[in-house]
UniProtKB/TrEMBL annotation:
PANTHER family per UniProt: GROWTH ARREST-SPECIFIC PROTEIN 1 (PTHR16840:SF3)
Protein name per Swiss-Prot or TrEMBL: GDNF/GAS1 domain-containing protein
Lineage: Eukaryota, Metazoa, Spiralia, Lophotrochozoa, Mollusca
Domain of life: Eukaryota
Positions with biased composition (Basic residues): 233-281
Length: 281
């Protein structure tokens, strides 16, 4: 777990460095008064640079009038609303007051707000599988989950190529599976919008990491069954040998009794012959 803790520290440092990179996007962070009073550093450090990149197009814009919620922005808002410290809810419920710039940006976010809030049921444990991009963004919105995800990326390169699932890769998967925000990743759906071969990665992970481990358990049961069958076979062979030995012993005893009977009859015959010879003299 030592290297994993180092990853968390490194990622937090990267996020803090990313604050100045995304300084233009200060919609909620510049508001330190009103119904919410969350520090700028806390709000920005709780989101990944990828998340802010996704929202920046919608909030800052490129001069065009946006009427529909882009998929990337929707995913970014869902992941922001999934954070445990309620940063996302503070983001969409902040009070702009008389800040005109803030009001304009909040109005843009409202294009996605109702649609995103209606789709928040996807975060429930019993909800159907979600897309892998959305599952990844939800994980990236959480510091520990993002650290576990990066740890997985760094130690599973051979798995991605379909070569093998190493011990370090399996360990990174175990760490990732313990993150609550990663519970949607294993059974997510590939929709073709990923920037990697999603289907191949999922297939390799299931085949080389999970099924091999499950197969080991099955082989243990199989070996136990095989051991039981071997014992039964040995018992049957032992019984057959005992039966053959008993039959041979029975035949030997029968033949021995016959030989003794024949010897007795031979002695009696000789005795009669001697008596007959004695009377004749």
């Amino acid at each position: 777990m030592g290297p994993y803790i180092d990853y968390i520290a490194r990622i937090r440092a990267v996020r803090n460095d990313g604050v100045s990179e995304h300084a233009k996007w200060h919609f909620a962070a510049e508001l330190s008064s009103g119904p919410i009073a969350v520090s700028r550093e806390k709000r920005l450090s709780n989101g990944t640079p990828q998340l802010f990149h996704s929202l920046q197009f919608l909030i800052v814009g490129n001069g065009e009038h946006i009427t529909a919620c882009p998929v990337n922005c929707k995913h970014a808002l869902v992941s922001l609303l999934s954070t445990e410290d309620n940063t996302g809810h503070a983001f969409i419920n902040c009070d702009c007051g008389k800040d005109k710039s803030c009001g304009e940006r909040k109005k843009k976010v409202q294009i996605c707000q109702s649609e995103v809030l209606d789709s928040m049921h996807v975060l429930k444990d019993d909800a159907p599988p979600i897309t892998c991009n959305l599952a990844r963004r939800i994980c990236e919105a959480d510091t520990s989950c993002l650290a576990a995800l990066k740890y997985y990326y760094d130690h599973c390169s051979r798995l991605f190529k379909g070569i093998r699932c190493s011990a370090k890769c399996k360990n990174s998967l175990r760490i990732l599976s313990r993150q609550h925000q990663a519970n949607k990743l294993r059974h997510c759906k590939c929709d073709g919008s990923e920037d990697y071969d999603c289907t191949a990665v999922k297939a390799n992970t299931e085949e080389m990491c999970f099924r091999k481990r499950d197969g080991l358990k099955k082989s243990e049961h199989s070996s136990a069954d095989s051991s039981t069958d071997t014992k039964k076979a040995r018992t049957r062979r032992r019984l057959r040998r005992r039966k053959r030995r008993n039959q041979a012993l029975k035949s030997w005893r029968k033949a021995n009794r016959k030989r003794r009977r024949q010897r007795r009859e031979e002695r009696k015959r000789k005795q009669r012959m001697r008596k007959t010879a004695a009377h004749g003299q």
